[in-house]
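Many introductory courses stop at the sequence. We go one step further.
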Amino acid sequence: MHQPVTGPTGPDQHGSRSWHYSAVGVEVSLASTGTMKKADFKSIESEEQFVELLKKHTLYREDDVTFESLGAEGMYVYSGDDFRVDEGLLADMGMSALLIVGNVEAELLSIGTILCDYGVFCVTGDLRCRDMHYCTESTGVSIGGNLEIENLLYADCGNSVLQVNGDLRAKLAFISQCSVDILGSNQAQFDEDLSVSDLASIGLPSDGEQEPDDIVRAYFEALAE
């Protein structure tokens, strides 16, 4: 029998912590925050400059409301393959737009941790993560390479968009109220029309009364605890 979520087990020798999610029966390791500093991010002074950078990397979406009015401040570029989701640092910086020139690897990638309810998050290379949570009001996410998700992508947004210039790979891509534009191939094993038995086949059993969307939401709620 799986044990309930009891909180972090404590850091290991690599500084990581893990949680056990009873409804799924998986150990989820969340890497500790890295050593990024605000000085590692280059501030872009004008929206026009930021848009030109996105166009240079084929990440800009013409006539898309989420890529308009990025604001007079809070636009940054980070170069390198060592970007980490440092919640405290990102919240302190108050980003309206972030361009990563490089690849991104993460355990749980939550767009709401990087952006508030508006703005854009763009990556020139590949984005690889174990799970991806995308629930914002009006944001844009644009990936220049492949989006490779080991487990689940859950996107429940308002006026938001996800563009992947390469391929999308995931066990489950559960999309609700979010525009998705995959320029390569969509290789997700299941989408939002899957059944409870489909979820069980990828390691998310139910108690017999939950709907698929409730099971997926509960999974991500447990990861965030």
